[in-house]
Amino acid sequence: MADGISIAFEPFGSAKAEEGSDLVLFVGEDLALSARAAEIAGEGAGDIVARAAAVERFKGKANTAMTVTAPAGLRADRLVVVGLGPEAERDKLDWAVLGGVTAGKVGGRRALVVLDWAGGAPTPETAASFSLGLRLRAYKFDRYKSKKGENDENGASRFTVLTAEAGNLKKVLRGADAVAEGVVLARELVNEPPNVLDPEEFARRTEALEKLGVSVEILDEKAMRKLGMRALLAVAQGSAKEARVVVMRWNGADDPSEPPVAFIGKGVCFDSGGISIKGSGGMEDMKGDMAGAACVVGLMHALAARKAKVNALGAIGLVENMPDGKAQRPGDIVTSLSGQTIEIINTDAEGRLVLADVLWHVQQEYKPKFMIDLATLTGAILVALGQEYAGMFSTSDELAERLAAAGEATGEKVWRMPLSPGFDKLIDSKFADMKNTGGRHGGSATAAHFIKRFVNDVPWVHLDIAGVGMNAPSSEISRSWGSGWGVRLLDRLVRDHYEG
């Protein structure tokens, strides 16, 4: 992993707390230690927890933690006590979040974690989810800092996790590690500066997936012109950086001819707005306007690394939207790959032009079971949903319901938004088949209807991730500006419903 974290799962009796390390124990609201935890911590540990909890007003609530420094009678330098909440609600615990809480308290230190508690014990899935949380919290992006903080809480940590399930964890841990790697990959891509990660470099990095068995096809501008991707190329024509489209395929199903599930990502590596230029305030954030594409790449890594029993396709359109004498203008009319014509009203409504050609290409060439696109598409979705949910638009009730359930399970939540003929009418044009924006009101919905015109009858979901994909708020499992949002959500969707 990029952060250098080390996690080893061992059976009870294989390790003891040591000087210079932390000892992590878990308690419910009764603050009781399990028999194994008490044995490992040593005589008097229960009294130490009770006394410290009284002083610190620690109640053992879920996702809270207390640190006792230099605990008397314990060899460990610090005792970290993590709360699990009431026993009646134990099955609702998010163990990835608890892993994040633990990693945050340990920081860049060694820790012995006793994954056991009074009245219960972890399942392999619980332990794997805990490991995922440790890894995601430990991630940091400091590649371009010449001075790195040695005492940063996100520094390299070494965890030895004691659990009764240590011998049964190999398969589930492989899956959790694959997902963690996919999330980290997506975060890395979003966090990179735009002078480093232009469309050509982004495309080049996807070739690393070939080591996992993913086939990667990169279309350059010549190939796109031959196909007729004129809407996508119109966005890119103002930039000195050439556009790319990348199609990634993982064939893990028993039947290689089974139609794939398809994921499509908007990859605007930098979005100045073009001729309809954005204000300068916050424009630096537009390096993250490729978070949808980053998610798709991270997801393909996760599926291949855990050898998912599914045929999956990931397609990303990579462009840079810049003002220039060659840039497209408001008032231009472009012809998309589908043959439909588009009047350009606002060159800052560019992501939907990229998606239009890539979605059409995917549904025409690969005949997928469904298509899910992800895009940091509209500021309007931030007004509607803040940074709590991604906006979800769908032509399939079944697919929408499955995504909503996966969102609740992973914490990457989605909220279904309306599609209606009234919104669709707002993008009709006097001069072309459609225009690329329907005005200020209902901006997320009119953008979704624009995209919908390029999916035909394929079951489809559009996820507007402008509020969750970049400049993300800190959480217990992410301290990163680029959140890697969507990798866990879509991996869970595939795992629950589409693997053979």
Key phrases:
about 500 residues; Leucine Aminopeptidase, subunit E, domain 1; alpha/beta; 17 strands; eight-stranded mixed beta sheet; Aminopeptidase
Strand order across the largest sheet: 7-8-10-9-13-17-14-15
Helix content: 25-40%
Radius of gyration, rounded? 24 Å
Structural class, judged by helices and strands?
alpha/beta
Say how many strands there are: 17
Number of helices: 15
- The shape is elongated
What is the CATH architecture annotation of the largest domain? 3-Layer(aba) Sandwich
Uncertain segments are: none
CATH structural class of the largest domain: Alpha Beta
Task: Write the CATH fold name of the largest domain.
Answer: Aminopeptidase
Summarize the structure in short:
With 500 residues, the protein is of the alpha/beta class. The chain has helices at 35-41, 45-56, 95-106, 124-138, 170-191, 199-206, 221-227, 230-236, 291-305, 351-366, 380-385, 397-410, 421-425, 443-452, 487-497; strands at 6-10, 21-27, 65-69, 78-83, 110-114, 158-162, 215-219, 244-251, 261-271, 311-321, 333-335, 341-343, 370-375, 390-394, 414-416, 434-435, 460-464.
